[in-house]
Design a protein that fits this description.
Layout (H helix, E strand, L loop, with lengths): L1 E6 L1 E3 L22 E3 L1 H17 L2 E7 L4 H11 L3 E5 L9 H13 L5 E5 L10 H9 L3 E11 L2 E7 L5 E7 L2 E5 L11 H6 L6 E3 L39 H14 L5
Parallel strand pairs: 1-4, 1-6, 4-5, 5-11, 6-10, 7-10
Antiparallel strand pairs: 2-3, 7-8, 8-9
Length: 263
Amino acid sequence: MNIIVCVKRVPETADADVVIDKSGKDIERSGLVFDLNEWDNYAIEEAIMLKEKMGGTVTVISMGGEDSNESLRKCMAMGADDAVRLTDPAFVGSDGFATAKALAEAVRKIPHDLVFAGVQAEDDGFGQVGVALAEILGIPHVSLVNSLEVQEKKMKVHRELEGGLEEVVEVDLPAVLTIQTGINQPRYVSIMGIRKVAKKEIKTFGVSDLNLKPEDVGLSGSYIQLEKIFLPPVGEGAQMLEGKPEDIASKVFDILKDKGGLT
């Protein structure tokens, strides 16, 4: 079972003060901590578990600069066999579709039975790359996967739906699966594990290596272009109500009526 996993290096912003940079189209990244995208972490773990059970290889692919090597080496420390980084100035500004075009050409170069990706990325949350990748490759896909079982030349897949529902489907291989958080428990990566893969080769592909033209990717190859990033406006502070329960209930009723919540 040869599996390719597409991963992304993202900034951790949950506990950081996010500042918009001078361009107005990105955040100030200096001082931020970067790590492997959370959803991709589960995708890597699932791929490695399948390899340990069935044999084969796991190859990770990421688009980015040399900084992305850190995340790729983390994947190899977890148990991935090989890593590929797509790097070229032409890739700058690529939306999900343009990114998927580049990834698809890299995937075609590597023997595979399955392609995994996280459901979405923490930084943009678009959830586009995995499904676009499948369409470009011309193979089936299943999104929001939270459980899977390999069958002969097929995969039985459980996928998460809204409202707590779950759908079970069968998909022919090769296929693209976008992995949901909670499907497994990603293993801990030790410092020793990172050191063991520190000198392992990470292959790099540019636009010309992928049989693409510069205009196929980047802004010129994208359907979506980012115009502006802004922080949501700060709302009014909470109104604290005091008094007897019946008085508070009456005040809540009046507030809702005043704000249009009741007719």
